From TrEMBL:
GO cellular component, one term: plasma membrane
Name listed for the protein in its UniProt record: Arsenicals resistance
InterPro entries on file: Arsenical-R_Acr3, BilAc:Na_symport/Acr3, Na+/solute_symporter_sf
Transmembrane region(s): 66-85, 97-116, 137-160, 166-185, 197-219, 239-258, 270-291, 311-331, 343-366, 378-397
UniProt similarity note: Belongs to the arsenical resistance-3 (ACR3) (TC 2.A.59) family.
Amino acid sequence: MAETKLHHENDNEELDLHREQVTEEFIPNPDGGVPYMQSALDFARSTENQGAARGLLLSLGWLDRLLSIFIIIAMILGVVIGEYASNARERLQSGDFEGVSAPLVVGMIMMMWPILTNVRYEKIPRMTRTWRLWNQIGFSLGVNWIIAPFVMLALAWATLPDLPGYRTGVIMVGIARCVAMVMVWNRIARGDTDICAILVIINSILQLVLYAPFAIWFVRVISGDDKLQLSYSKVATAVGIYLGIPLGAGILTRFSMMKLLGTQRFAKRFLPYFAPLSLISLLYVIIVIFASQSHKILHNLGPVFRTIVPLVLYFMIMWAMIFVLVSILSARYGKTHWGYQLAVVQAFTAASNNFELAIAVCVATYGADSDQALASTIGPLVEVPVLLALSWLALYLGRFMRWDKRTPRTSSLPSRSSDQTV
């Protein structure tokens, strides 16, 4: 009897959390599908019958709508700067900090700061008392630390059997689990920011313990590369830089500004102006990466294009497999435990990688001019356009897939009463 009562109370907490998913930016879909943007309700109403693609485009913010164009421009601009600007590559690679250039370190930290400011840390203690969160943690750990590294290992050997240096770099990217940019893609695709942040933090902590033995196992034991030397301090430092600094800044910014401005003004006045800094920093990071590596890319086109193949296959296979699997689980068990937002979280955490850590380790272990370092650098060059495209694909497919075990509703917008219906 007591066990039944405890289970019932746990379910009630999960339902209460589900009803409270009205964040600063999104309003949840009553059928568990793609959430609506609060600033785009009028657009969504007016475009209900004008086609899903047009409705999707109009429901995005202007920066999100133009992000793909901005990224293409940033890539081209980076290559042009790297090739034709005098001493640009040397200046961008200056100020080496733990194997990564200082301009890139600054950009990565600035990119994560607004995203981690938007996480509702005040709700995390309550979330830990629900099965919903623990189910997501268990699912994510199994995918990220058991399935994903072996998928990348298989693809690297299948596509690069005669390029051991590039193959090792790809494997090093595969075992470095998501830390930074996954939260950018999660935001664009309107995933659950809170759960995504928790999974990123857990994966980051696990990397302190697991990255070194995983690298030794996959590279030295399975692949036969005896040159690999790793230290836990190197891995811990990299994770601390790219997660610890922006995480601390995000927590401090959120609670200090909420106390200074109040919750409503913080959500409506501060966040809308602060959040775009993340995507602006993303464009800056892309320019720096392409400018720094433009010479290597243009003068090693054959190996570079071959290295792109396993990375593209990995991102697409992992994302599609997990997105479809969660949609099946959602249709069977309901939106309360799964739903579109969690499909986005799980798919992008599975497909994303901590390329900063992989680059830092490859540069420190094999040298900045090594094939391994170049291959690890190709990782973000491929990840950015592919996962951006998958973010848009998630928004599009999310409108047509079934996300609840009951019959999907046809209403386009949730009312306050429908938010409270389970």
